[in-house]
Amino acid sequence: MARNSNTQEKPIHCSIKNTVSLLVGDHKHDFSSGCKMFDVTFPNVINPEDDSFIREIGEIQFKNYYVAHLTIRAKFRSPDFNGQTGDLKWRTCVRRFQMMPDPHSEDGSHSYFYLNRKHFNFDIVNLSTLRFILHQPSPVWKDFKLEDLQFFRTSQALKPLDLPSWLTAPEETTTEEPAAEKPKLPGVPDLDALSAHLQELWAMAEDVSSNQSTVPLGRYDVDGCYDVTLLSYT
Amino acid sequence: MLFQKSRRYSETIENLGNALLFLLETMNDDCVMNGNDDQAQVLQFMKTMELYADLMEAAQTEVNKSNFKLTDLQTSIELTFNNKGRNGALKNAIYKYVCLHAAKHSEVPVDHLKDPISYVFKAQQSWEKKIMKSLNSMCTELNVPLARQRTEKEQKEFNHMWTALGADGPDFSQIRPVYAPKDFLEVVTSLNNVNYRSTNHSGFNLWGIIQIPLKNRTMDELRIQFNEMSINQWQSGMDDEQDISVEIFDHDRIKLGQKVIASKHAPLACEFTKKGSSISLRGDLWCQMMGIKIDDVDILYYEKLKSNVLQHELLIDNLLYKDVKLTATNDDHYFVFEDFLYQILLPFSRDTVVLRNLLENSTATPARSYIRGKVGLEQFEVYYPPSGVIPFHGFAMYVSPLCYLYKEPIKLYYVFRELYTCYFFRLHVLSTDPQGILSLSQLFETLLQTHEAELFYHLKSVNCQPLKIAFKWLMRAFSGFLASDQVLILWDRILAFNSLEILSVLAVAIFTFRKTNLMKVQTYSAAEGVLADLTTLQVLPLIQLSLFCK
Q: Which of A190, A203, B155, B194 has a CA between 20 and 30 Å from the CA of residue B79?
């Protein structure tokens, strides 16, 4: 589920609003409800006046800090059947994604998470705002939040191992090639046998060069010398 | 015809690797692999084993047969493997890999992979700095280098005395152990999470001295995990004693055990050993469970380690000597094995395989240093000691019980190395690993508080925290505290269930067993006195009482 580091995609530009603690009843009492939320908008950097919406979000990446479970709601413009733009509405995209299996203990409290299409209830397209609702029901923790939040357009789905085609394709029936088609050069040995031997030689050389062992030899000294006086602290 | 076949032959050699990968996947049902990375890693792991060359050779012989059709590649190679029993060896290799390695994300930073909880990782690093300072100060006090080359004469002498190193050691009165279990306990109890509300405010009343909440198994989950040790099941090591009626059990067990050993299948050996192993079969069963087979390469490797010991003298050697003299030599059960211990421990500290395992699987950062005169130059940076392990007081006791099982030092060496790199390294390193010493201590305290609340409360009120007594048992896996045969019975279960949690369960069971005496104590030293001598205890009845009789 991790992003392949070979294809570094730039995260989508977003602006994360401040976190708001959700409170219950009148706000005079100091009561921690264990529930926080923040909004994320996606301003169009290239053309600020353009009110166009983000095409799609494929993957959300973040580091947890003591959040027990997470709900994400998305505000988007629904497509209208008449071809006109529809209304803005809210839908729950991810419901109660559990990050800490036991809210009272440390498991999962500092872990990295990657949410992609498999976790979303519907494909996120034409998005205007994302609302993250954080829950931490345990009274044991003082604070909880998400860190390093990043959004990516596509998610790297892992491809299954491809079998080479010659393994699955039925073998072509090779009939004897009519001897008349092969040119016979006088004084030269049989071309087929020659090329076969060369092929084998080349194959063996390739095999050896590609099979270099990476097992280390277990040497701990430097050129036979291991005179060490003190340990270094760096 | 020949031309086409030879062209395909070259393709076959290149693609045989991929084909083998595919076969590995289809042949092992228990293995859950996600994506190409994991499969590539398994193949890398397999390439280091002799099994890989064997399989490739068999596959190539099969391919070379004249009636070979390319599209039958998969089925015919699978048949070859099944025929010669290589299938079993392949399954054992993959089982071992799965036991050792967990799937890792590629995006996550390296520090986070070591331990996800950052303050635990930082605590481990500062503890390591303390150890390094202590070692450095010992060096400067005694005016001895950490490592130096032996002269030719010294090497010859040492080689001459190799099998009798215990007889005539140098003077060790100046050397002190770098740290002992009680020092490590102080570090463990001082771990503190700033985001955690103190017990007064939140109402979570934890009586123990571990201050971080780690998720542990409950008693019910432990009962399910260890259900083969249930009180209604016969157990080797307990039920095979003198009665005539149970002699039949012992004979049956031995016959079954011999069949299991002959099948050469590691998971099967694990299942068998869950009910214990007979004394005669224990050595072979352990080797099978850990995937140890001594061949010429291994013998050569051990000889190379021995020559490394002869070439360079390390300060660690003196620490090990001192440790052996303080612990094993003073113990009635193990003093006869003193020479063996040196033959195992000295090469162990030169073994870089241990270092690689530590770097991959543990939160420890082994100490580094520079060659004399070349401080700061990267190409002269080396790890010290080569194995990355700085021994503490009691380290030699990890090896001592094994001396009863194996006569030849080479086999003993590999078994010890495997035990250490799979299990025992977790007992002296700070991490949130569910098998680490932190979790084991937490499990002990939670179980004791839940099931023996009266006892725990009484001990707490006389200023005696139970973990302070039990910690040294956990850290040494009870070696040197229980009788030697009982230690081996306990370690049987550690290997069979692939879990160190049995240590915490046994510690709770011992407290429960001595409860009546403990309820009468009024001081910490009296409590220590009650629990000082464990050599009369039998491991299995205690565990069964504790797990299955409430």
A: A203
| H or E element that contains A85 | strand A85-98
A182 touches chain B (CB under 8 A): no
Instruction: Give the span between the Cα atoms of A103 and A141, in whole angstroms.
Output: 9
Q: Is A24 on the interface with B (CB under 8 A)?
A: no
Bridge-based pairing state of the strands B368-371 and A228-232: antiparallel
State whether B116 and A168 contact (CB < 8 Å).
no
- pLDDT tens column, B368-399: 888 887 777 777 888 888 999 999 999 999 99
Q: Quick check: bond before B385 cis, omega within 30?
A: yes
Residues B130-140 pLDDT 10s: 999 999 998 88
**B283 three-state secondary structure:** helix
B-proximal residues of A, 137-166, CB under 8 Å: 139-143, 158-159, 161, 163-164, 166
ipTM: 0.70
Nearest to A226 among B74, B106, B312 (CB): B312
- Rounded Cα distance between B328 and B397, Å, is 7
B457 has a chain A CB within 8 A of its CB:
no
Chain A: closest CA distance from residue B113 (Å): 10
Is residue A28's pLDDT more than 70?
no
Sign, CA torsion A19/A25/A26/A29: negative
Residues A90-119 have pLDDT tens digits of 888 889 999 999 888 888 888 889 888 888
Among A residues 46-105, those touching chain B with beta carbons less than 8 Å apart: 61, 65-66, 101-102, 104-105
What is the pLDDT averaged over residues B278-307? 91
Q: Select the residue of A192, A214, A232 nearest B2 (Cβ to Cβ).
A: A192
Nearest CA in chain B to A106: B214
Q: What is the DSSP letter of A146?
A: E
A31 in reach of chain B (CB within 8 A): no
A40 and A15 Cβ atoms separated by less than 8 Å: yes
The single-letter code of the amino acid at A13 is: H
Contacts of A216 in chain B (CB under 8 A): 352, 356
- Tokens describing residue B458: 């009484």
pLDDT in tens, B182-221: 999 999 988 888 888 766 555 556 778 887 888 888 888 8
* Nearest Cα to Cα of residue A192 among A119, B312, B365, A200: A200
Give the whole-angstrom CA distance, residue A71 versus residue A91.
Answer: 11
Selecting from A143, A164, A219 the residue whose C-beta is nearest the C-beta of B195 gives: A143
Question: How close is the nearest chain A Cα to the Cα of B71, in Å?
Answer: 5
Mean pLDDT of chain B: 83
Rg of the Cα atoms in chain B = 26
Closest residue in chain A to residue B130, using alpha carbons only: A233
How many residues are listed for chain A in this entry? 234
Report strand pairing: A59-65 vs A145-152.
antiparallel
Three-state SS annotation for B297-353: HHHHHHHHHHHHHHHEEEHHHHHHHHHHHHCCCCCCCCHHHHHHHHHHHHHHCCCHH
Which backbone phi and psi does A115 adopt, to 5 degrees?
-100, 125
The answer to whether the CB of B341 falls within 8 A of the CB of B317 is no
Residue B480 reports pLDDT greater than 80: yes
Whole-structure pTM value: 0.80
Sheet holding B147-149, edge to edge: B312-314, B147-149, A228-232, B368-371, B381-383
Q: Is A41 helix (H, G, I), strand (E, B) or coil?
A: strand
What are the φ and ψ backbone dihedral angles of B141, each rounded to 5 degrees?
Answer: -60, -50
Return all residues near B304 (Cβ < 8 A) that are at least 6 apart.
A218
User: How many Cβ atoms sit within 10 Å of the Cβ of residue A87?
Assistant: 7
